[in-house]
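hey m, so remember when u said the tokens were messed up on ur end? i reran from scratch. heres the input so u can diff it against urs
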Amino acid sequence: MSSQSEKADLLKKLHHRGRMLILPNIWDAAGASLLETLGYPAVATASAAISHAHGFEDGEHIPFDMLLSIVAQVVKAVNVPVTVDLETGYALDRATLKSNIRRLIAAGVAGINIEDTDLRTRELVPVNEQVEKLKLIRKVAEQENTRMFINARTDSFLLKNDMSQEERLAVAIERGKAYIDAGADGIYPIFAKEESAIKALVAALKVPLNVLAMPGTPDLDALQRLGVARVSFGPNVHKAMLATMRTMLQDVIKSTSHFPVTGYPATS
């Protein structure tokens, strides 16, 4: 099994190989093992999927210690690099953020997503604050004598406000450039789905661009042609699995409705 540093280096190479890195985000070790068995070269988690699978709402409501335990199980289950959806860092101060990054590195995590929304106000944090956060994460990795792929998420296309699509694009480019200067290895303008916007982002930012696969997003072949380096699925795999389970279990309960289990109420 490779070291954390070697996995971080491999994760970076996977973003620069000229072939799009496809990451169907998972939430547990079983999902990670399945992806590796199918030939996926890296594994990514989804914060919403992990949270919902363990009874929490998304938005850092799951305790960090619990998240770290789940992440550690995922890392141990596979030999490929693992990148973790860290939301805003699960930290309200620099000391806690430093500690969280060190603990993730110690668990073998090769990369993270870090977003620029203030979870309390649901607004974009000031650019300078996010830049300082990214610099701190990069510095911690250097102090630990290792690497970590930092995928800097910007939420200008996600947040509900009065900005036009042109303004959202301009903000994403401005923030993306600032985050790259601060040490980000890739930029993730989540909810950017118009082909023209994706093309402009790829041209302007010059680092691997991550796009979320969602309704309205160009298909994978089109994203590859546009120069997208990474495609994420967010919580959509988890949602699809639950939808499949619902259909299957509805069929089961319908087929057994004539033979109710003793002690359970009859179903309508």
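this time it looks ok to me. The CA atoms of residues 154 and 251 lie 42 Å apart. if urs says something different then somethings off w ur setup not the seq
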